[in-house]
Specification:
This protein is α+β, with helices and mostly antiparallel strands. The protein contains eight helices and twelve strands. The strands form four sheets. The protein has a five-stranded antiparallel sheet with strand order 5-6-9-10-11. A three-stranded antiparallel sheet has the order 4-3-12. A hairpin with a 2-residue loop joins strand 1 and strand 2. Helix 1 packs across helix 6, helix 2 crosses helix 7 and helix 3 runs antiparallel to helix 5. The longest helix is centred in the N-terminal third of the chain and has 35 residues.
Length: about 375
């Protein structure tokens, strides 16, 4: 418990990092985002078009890099969604059988056998926590949409709040058992957990020219997070200093049609028991509270290499690096990035994942 707490508080007690390392990391992130943007725009256009077909909005056309609704006089009144059944079939194939592997001891002593037994129990626990397919279904869905699907496997030290730290003593001076010295009274006691997350392809920035995405040396997870999320993870002081970077709409550059698509796509569920894609009720998000304001979030991972033997893990909010450290090799002893790609289609000389199944299913324009 103390280890989890100390790591959580390391983030929450941070002030804005102002050193040469932070400045250089901010420039690296900015430059790599800038280099990736042309490819991202191309990918985003294809992704929006494919999502349109997936959710049944087939009366669209591509105008430059924009996905637009076909004018009313050219709309086909009756259409049949043939894309959805194809995605359902892919999901059924991908999740029909769990991965086949055995967990065995690395040696013959008692510690190795105990480790293997624990690993077997941990694997079953993860299946209960994340689903038996360990998010493979969602990864396959993103592969169909954009040519590559991603899963992120991380250790979250603050996954659950299990209680609060009691005061050091009662009013009469009697010591309270369970108080953790050096930790403020009333602070949250957290417990860590492994998390497996299906990451939308459009949120990741990497070397798109790489022939093997499993051998990437760096990756950036770029998304938007809420004001409340920043307070919970980095504390009120950093939130206050970054207050000018928040906005009330995380998707202000979207067209009304794109917002409509996003809402419909967010209402698509992958049911691992039935292995189908079904529609669900979407929540209303017309009203944003102060805690729901957004800020740009960049999570930069660079694994240890001969040129940079310590590696890097850092977080940038808006334009400021708020946290950086060497690659957390203790938590990821394999030394690899915690992102797993699913990109079975490879063509020599072409961008990895450039040809996705759904793009081939759409009519030529």
């Amino acid at each position: 418990m103390e280890d989890n707490y100390s790591q959580a508080q390391t983030n929450k007690q941070l002030v804005l990092v102002d050193d040469n390392v932070a400045e250089n990391l901010a420039k690296i992130i900015e430059k790599r985002c800038e280099t990736y943007n042309p490819h991202r725009q191309e990918l985003l256009t294809e992704t929006i078009a494919n999502i349109s077909y997936l959710v049944g909005e087939q009366n669209i056309e591509l105008v430059g890099n924009e996905v637009c609704v076909i004018p009313v006089d050219r709309i086909i009144d009756a259409t049949i969604n043939l894309v959805l059944p194809a995605v359902q079939k892919d999901l059924a194939i991908a999740t029909s059988r769990p991965p086949a592997f055995d967990i065995v001891p690395n040696g013959t002593d008692d510690d190795d056998r105990a480790t293997a037994i624990f690993a077997e129990k941990a694997y079953r626990h993860l299946q209960k926590l994340c689903g038996k397919d360990l998010k493979r279904g969602k990864s396959v869905m993103w592969y169909d949409i954009s040519g590559v699907g991603w899963r992120k496997v991380i250790w979250n030290p603050n996954a659950y709040v299990k209680g609060i730290n009691p005061p050091a003593q009662e009013d009469d001076g009697t010591p309270i058992e369970g108080h953790i010295p050096g930790m403020p009274a009333g602070a949250a006691l957290t417990e860590g957990e492994v998390e497996i997350i299906s990451v939308p392809t459009t949120q990741l920035i990497y070397d798109f020219r790489a022939e093997d995405l499993t051998k990437l040396e760096w990756i950036i997870h770029a998304k938007q997070v809420t004001s409340a999320w920043v307070i919970n993870n980095f504390g009120a002081e950093i939130h206050e200093k970054l207050s000018g970077h928040f906005n009330m709409g995380g998707t202000t550059k979207e067209s009304r049609f794109q917002t409509h698509l996003r809402n419909k796509f967010n209402a698509v569920n992958v049911d691992e028991k039935q292995r189908v894609v079904t529609s669900a009720m979407s929540a209303l998000d017309d009203v944003l509270l102060d805690a729901d304001r957004y800020i740009d979030y960049y999570e930069y991972w660079e694994k240890p290499t001969s040129q940079n033997p310590t590696g890097v893990y850092c977080v940038k909010l808006g334009t400021q690096v708020v946290f950086h450290q060497p690659f957390p090799i203790d938590q990821y002893p394999h030394g690899e990035l915690p992102f797993i790609p699913a990109d079975p289609v490879k063509i020599d000389g072409a961008t990895t994942g450039a040809i996705c199944r759904m793009s081939q299913a759409r009519p030529l324009q």
